[in-house]
Amino acid sequence: MFILSLVVGAIIGGVFGYLGSYPGLRLKETFLAITLIFIGEIGRIIARNEKRVACGLTGLKGIPNPFRWIDNVNLRSVLYSVVVLMMAAATYIYVQRLTQSPFGRLLKAIRDNDLAAMVLGKEIPRARGIAMVIGSALAAVAGVLRTFYIQGVVADDFIPLITFTVLSMVILGGVANNMGVLIGTLVMTTIDHFLSPSFLSIIGFRVEFDIT
Q1: pTM listed for this prediction
Q2: Closest by alpha carbon to 35, among 18, 50, 23, 48?
Q3: What is the DSSP string of the chain?
Q4: What would the pLDDT profile of 125-172 be if each residue is shown by its tens digit?
């Protein structure tokens, strides 16, 4: 079920990524980003209110760990972490090779000067559509890994703040710098972990919220 979920998730993510971005493929990067955030938020609201998508407000619970046949709970976590790290490494290698491929150079040309690329006969909307399919498929795979990790999924887990956090990782690491984005991800994740109320309470800091 785990492997099937990865494959199906990648396919569905790629298809919906293309369909969702299709209306804005001819827009500039800034307006395309705004359009994608808008469409993503609409999708979240639909999933939140439509029970047939992911059980509505309650979410889909009880998804088993891929290594549930192992009795040792700690060993399950370790094995699943190894699987996630291996897939992260494979994704990094794939993206790195894609960046250095002819298609990757085309995307760089569009990023630097889309007008020049269009004059040279490049189909900019088609290239952006393919990039959206690849990116959405990879994001869907990450979503499947997260779902099996927390053993459930709720629509409200994917609020716009998640998008802005990922964008912060990219900006911190440097656009068009895969290694930099990886480092930015590690830095942002570490900061988020060490500033969480649960960790602060462990080291003796009490976090109190005044709701009056």
Answers
A1: 0.81
A2: 23
A3: -HHHHHHHHHHHHHHHHHHHHGGGTTS-HHHHHHHHHHHHHHHHHHHHH-HHHH-TTT-EE-PPPTTTT-S-HHHHHHHHHHHHHHHHHHHHHHHHHHHTSHHHHHHHHHHH-HHHHHHTT--HHHHHHHHHHHHHHHHHHHHHHHHHHHTEE-GGGS-HHHHHHHHHHHHHH-TT-HHHHHHHHHHHHHHHHHTSHHHHHHTT--------
A4: 888 889 889 999 999 999 899 889 888 888 777 887 888 888 888 888
* 94-132: b (≥16 Cβ within 10 Å) or e: ebeeeeeeeebebbebbeeebeebeeeeeebeebbbbbb
Distances (CA, A) of 28 to 110, 148, 205: 10, 36, 46
Report domain extents, the chain: 2-158, 159-212
Kindly state the tokens that stand for 89.
Answer: 């490494």
Q: Which two tokens stand for residue 177?
A: 């710098």
The DSSP bridge partners found for residue 153 are 60
